[in-house]
Amino acid sequence: METTRQEQLRTAGLRVTRPRLSVLQVLAERPHADVDAIVTAARALHPTLSPQAVYGVLEALVSGGLARRIEPAGAPALFELRVGDNHHHLVCRSCGAVADVDCTVGAAPCLTPSDTAGFVVDEAEVVFWGLCRECRVGTPAGTAQVDQHDNRGGASG
Prior knowledge:
- By secondary structure, this protein is an alpha+beta fold.
- The protein folds into 2 domains: 2-70, Winged helix-like DNA-binding domain superfamily/Winged helix DNA-binding domain (Arc Repressor Mutant, subunit A, Orthogonal Bundle); 83-142, Dna Ligase, domain 1, CATH 3.30.1490.190.
- 32% of the residues lie in helices and 15% in strands.
- It has 5 helices and 6 strands, in the order ααβααβββββα.
- It has helices at 2-11, 18-29, 35-45, 51-63, 133-137, and strands at 33-34, 68-70, 78-80, 87-92, 98-102, 127-130.
- The strands form 2 sheets. A 3-stranded antiparallel beta sheet has the order 1-3-2.
- The protein starts with a helix and ends in a 20-residue tail after the last helix.
């Protein structure tokens, strides 16, 4: 698996470094992780890794097209390795769980604005909000308390 990650880095024009390999491994194991979770998990693999180094690695991975940064409203930025397709995200308003959902239309952009204001649109980002199965099941009659400002991000569903 590490050989594949090394090849991915080289193909993206990035040097193969231990911090980059560590962050790629974390993202493979924890899609939709925020920076704090990535730093903690990457330090388990590479104890001297600094938060600043992780930010630099994430920036390089996103710029190189190996990772994607998503920013659900009210939540910290989340990172994933699923790139190059036209997928969107489901976000739980209660616990912040995030799950991928394929675009129902298929081709990017899957939505067309009523007025492009002169822009050439090549992508549409859609975030579906609701309550995940665990939050619906864990509350009486599915009436989970919804705090729209507490979308922590994290575990994928």
